[in-house]
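Hi Y.,

Following your request, here is the sequence exactly as I used it, all 165 residues.
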Amino acid sequence: MITIRPAREGDLDGFLTLASQVEHWFGPMVGEPGFHRAVTAHIRDGAALLAESTEHTDPPGPVGGLLFGAEPPAYHVHWLVTSERCRGTGVGRLLMAEAMRRYVSGPGTVEVVTFGPDHPGAVESGARVFYERLGFAPGEPAEPGPEGGSRQIYRLDVPVPVTPV
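Below is the corresponding structure, written out as tokens. Let me know if you'd prefer a different format.
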């Protein structure tokens, strides 16, 4: 079973462990002070979520993490990573569902910058298909990533919430 919780001050190492598993796609993060500052700021602002496995058979530690930004009507997935062993098991979907519940009040648009169609991580990570299955639509190209690979913006329109009568 997976639980999703707000990240706490002591969770930086967990985010760094997750980052170490995707640096080949995103470029250096673990040793980058800017990444440390970004994670710490998101945690301090209550805009970071951590997924943990409650199964006793799994090694301890996070199995996913998400950094989010909300400036309604614009919302941004700044970073979403699942551990190598948990990709394709629903951890990312759980993180996104919790982020949408906590941070998105609608109406608006949720944006994420993910791999471009020609990036090696586009297929291997499953990121593009993941966002498309959540209802995101591909948009315009974005600036290349720090490793030089192509990037593309994906958007999800959030409708006006229905208020009970």
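The CA atoms of residues 70 and 103 lie 6 Å apart.

Thanks again,
Q.
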